[in-house]
Amino acid sequence: MGYIAVKGGSDAIHQAKELVEFYRVKEQTPPVSVEQIRTQMRLACDKVISEGGLYAPEYAAIALKQSEGDVFEAAFILRAFITTLQRRYYSETINTREMFIRRKISASFREIPGGQVLGPTRDYTQRILDTTKIEETLKDIRQFLDRFESTIDKEQIKEITTYGKVIDLLKREGLLKGVGNVEDTTLKDITREAIKFPAPRSARLQMMARAETGGLMALGYSSMRGFGNTHPTVGELRYGTVPVRVRDRAGRVRYIGKIELTEAEMITTMKTDKKNSVPLYSIGYGLCFGQNDTKAICMGILDRAMRSPEGGAPANDAEFVLYHTEGVEAMGFTNHLKLPHYVTFQAGLSNVRQAVERANAAPAKVKAEPVAG
Hints:
single chain; about 375 residues; alpha+beta; 4-stranded antiparallel β-sheet; 13 helices; 4 strands; disordered N terminus
């Protein structure tokens, strides 16, 4: 059954959908619940809500289940779902200084406000395949949770608080260069307005927040390797929850809940010239849904790279960066190559055949001509 080919015709789409579903369930293993995906594959869900551009972890889990774990496809599904929704409010500006910290580190300073909080990360773990996960049971999970809770000294638990930012240390000493650019303070909504270049910083950050993590990483890495001039230090990387507020029709600000975010502030040195000989620091900024250190860091790298006056590197070219990291659009255009292109290809093929015929006929024609005496 698995080798049945989908043929053309009026039922082709239905047949393809049925066959995809068959491959998903043909082994008849116990169904994976949406709640399991949401909680035990949270980082995959975080990528989907970020690239899909919709903060809805449960819907992201549904999309992952539907797409058999294909993050690209799941983000595509979520992005399409957004087009069916009505926009009722714009949120107030989120203040990340209110973040309830789950992870907070700095590679620039050892001592930072509130101290280094490593939080949930695999940065300090060995990447060794854990084959015991094959036999993991709910009993094993409960035993681990009991053991983990027993290690917590409840008397040492402190009151929930917020922390100052690392960049404040640089601001107080006057070492941080401000934006000082009207273009970079213009607010655009990329979901309502077509992107135009040169694009303001707000549009660039919005597009990168929805961009594909791997695409951002490739271009950010290229800049650090020398195809550009941006090689920053992590000023501060934060992951946690922040409150979201909206303004109702009466003008009252309402709290509607919290969302998980990752924020990165990348410190780079500014190039000096004859007019400005003071080597101040500048900040590259990244912010995305969920926990995704790599994406936030690469956003910060590219934010700074695209504001660089020097050209010649892909990472410095806003149009190149933003168009080629847009995962949903890139996936759609790449996969459209699988659709029929019979007419255009046959037209090109006909031209090539005629050119070959002319080339083959040319020597015979030259040989038949009389030699001038």
